[in-house]
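Record type: monomer structure entry
Structure origin: computed from sequence
Chain ID: A
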Amino acid sequence: MTAKPYLHKVLYRDCDMMRVVNNANYVHFMEDARVDALSQIGCEYKGMEERGFAGPVIRLSVEYKSSARFGDEMEVVVTFTRYTGVRLCLSYVMRDRATGKVFATATSEHCFVSMSDGAPVLISRRFPDWDEALSKACKSD
């Protein structure tokens, strides 16, 4: 499933002295978009933490295509690509909202762990509502 785009107006603080977005900030945009996409399928990140588990990033890849600049309106499109019950994979396209010019593409992979001891969490057993929502999101499109 591809979530509705997350919108971010590039702020001055996102940029270097040339008003170009610092490459590290794309990871922040991805995180914001990921939390929003999870919310769209009924998996609130705050609720995950309240239930005692987290979904840390275990793999991340970003390919920079063109420079986003101060004032650009960026949309980040998140697609749920694979879910195994233990791991979740997402893909991202970050592009100019007006022109469609792609700034960056990326993928991230996440596992699920207990916040109390860091032990792996099998979502299907402990949180069947999340398991159903993630399975459905990865099978549609």
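Annotation 1: The two ends are 5 Å apart (CA to CA).
Annotation 2: Residues 30 and 74 are 11 Å apart (CA to CA).
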